Amino acid sequence: MGSPIWVLLGTDPAHQTAIVSTDEILKCRNLRKTFGDLVAVDDVSFTITAGETYGLLGPNGAGKTTTISMIAGILARDGGDVSVCDRPHGTSSAWGKRRIGYVPQDLALYPDLSARENLRFFARLYALGRAEARTRIEEVLEVVGLTDRAKDPVKDYSGGMKRRLNIGVGLLHRPPLLILDEPTAGVDPQSRNAILESVAALTGEGVAVLYTTHYMEEAERLCDRIGIIDLGRIRAEGARRELVALVGELDRITLTADGTRPVPELEALPEVREVGVQEGRLDVMVADARSALPRVLAAATEAGLVVRAVEVHEPNLESVFLHLTGKALRD
């Protein structure tokens, strides 16, 4: 159990909800869902703590959307348990749904209304009081970077601006858990970066985020832990380096140097697994390049090599994903 965390939902006394939660905001245990003979989700379990971004990655048809729908309380599960802020959660749990901000891949906006009018409409659905709604709408517009365009109709927005407003709707009621289903799909690089910065800021404030994406670089940049799902099952879970370690791939430090030759001092280092010598360069294979680099450089220098350039190559999530599923993320 982690330390208790106070989560304040709302500032209007009529709708203010303060809860004490452990830092385990979401807990899924042995989730299962079938559609006829198809087992869409099979024994899926994971947790997300306050301030953590958990990436759920998988190829199309892997079970991501079904899993998210069960967590959000939209789809009934056939087996397993979901708890939000330490309380059981399901399709009939109004308490749990008020603590989840669900941002679907499909836009849920009214194009003829402005951003502020859209947020005002959804604030009513969330039963926010007038004073709280006014304050919260301005806060959300600032978070998603739309304050300057708040009066413009949504139909005049770019795809990226619509995505950002879609996220804003999910943030209005200050949920401790935010579910983002491919929030950057089809947006320009500038909007994608703005969305990623917003998500990073939210986790810094203690929000737990469940994040799905088809962009591996987003998962590497944002996610503290990642679950790789395929054919309805979690194939692997952990931080980036833990996942890379599962498939046994090593980091490579490439030293460009004059007069390359075998260097026993390098091969003797405990961090070094293998040293490849080629004309003009050495390829040093290590388990953790960032921690090994200073000792590798020191050993090369002491051996009399004149190092002209250094490159570090780390295995990425794409290689792990291909190893575990046999598919690219966007398949």
Automatic annotation (TrEMBL):
Every ABC transporter domain range: 26-256
InterPro entries in UniProt: AAA+_ATPase, ABC_transporter-like_ATP-bd, ABC_transporter-like_CS, DrrA1/2-like_C, P-loop_NTPase
Molecular function (Gene Ontology), one example: ATP hydrolysis activity
Keywords: ATP-binding, Nucleotide-binding, Transport
Signal sequence segment: none
PROSITE patterns recorded: ABC_TRANSPORTER_1 (PS00211), ABC_TRANSPORTER_2 (PS50893)
Domain of life: Bacteria
Protein name, per record: ABC-2 type transport system ATP-binding protein
Native organism: Nonomuraea fuscirosea
Lineage per the UniProt record: Bacteria, Bacillati, Actinomycetota, Actinomycetes, Streptosporangiales
